[in-house]
Fold:
Amino acid sequence: MAKMAPDQIAERLDAFETRCRQLGLPLTTQRHAVLRAVLEHHDHPTADQVLETVRDRVPGISRTTVYRALDTLVALGFVRRLHHAGPSARFDGQTHRHHHLICDKCHKVIDLQDESLDRLHISEVHAEGFQIEDFSVHFMGICRACRRSEPS
Amino acid sequence: MAKMAPDQIAERLDAFETRCRQLGLPLTTQRHAVLRAVLEHHDHPTADQVLETVRDRVPGISRTTVYRALDTLVALGFVRRLHHAGPSARFDGQTHRHHHLICDKCHKVIDLQDESLDRLHISEVHAEGFQIEDFSVHFMGICRACRRSEPS
DNA sequence: TGCTATTTGCAAATCAGTGTCAAGAAGGTC
DNA sequence: GACCTTCTTGACACTGATTTGCAAATAGCA
Structure:
């Protein structure tokens, strides 16, 4: 998963500032720092991982604020919220598409990049009033580790 | 989204009883009622929604038991667990291949039958030791109801 | 600088799910 | 049916993740 380039991060932060002014939304140090933290992560951080990263720049920031900032960023479309198998939500500053391998035994979720899967014909899907933004393919099966340990 | 027909529900419950006897797994009232509740739901209930439904038939059943019964049913393949559809896991009694529309706002899950999606070339997927049994395509977006109420 | 609406930080509450353990069925055996 | 063993249940406490209520602080603006 490629890390975002510094100039691309700066560009996104600028876009965010512009959008805030457009909406009359106060552009706080905290919100700015939270977006930056998410963009600088190359993986999909949980809210707590974001908090940890943000604290390098804004030491006193509270967990609550990070949660609220993430909510705002998701609502504005600058960050995507991902639900994986674990108990905590994950956040993603890149909007690249990815798929999942889900183990039926241990419930582990493995991310999968596959270009051939990305070319799905969404338009053909009969979606009755549902406005489709994106999709992801979930593969169910048994992971390598579980296959080894339990060759049932 | 089609509700499961009564005779189909009965058939699945029978299959479950048979499987329990095969495995020497005690067939308890609670487990039976939990499976029934999931099958009778036309949507994709959370564990707590299942609990609520089950209580109509088994008033004293505890939350813990419902969670455990769902675990068992998932392990036996009678129920499918859906992550990625919001903060809480959702359960699905349909076991044939189908796809999902997931609302980003209200986290509702709508079943989708689409033959064209079923013809995905699994073999092309680079699955590193993962043995793929089945797949399902998840479409994320905004459902009709949420679009009406919040035309942002 | 001063005003106002919004946001922040803290603490407490809530939510989803898990762990513990004594009491209670299920499924056999006589 | 009585009995026994094993697995399950229910009550409760507990964890980690997220939300809420409210007073104090701050951004945006005149």
Summary: The beta strands of chain B are 80-82, 90-92, 99-103, 109-112, 131-142. Residues 39 and 72 of chain B are 15 Å apart (CA to CA).
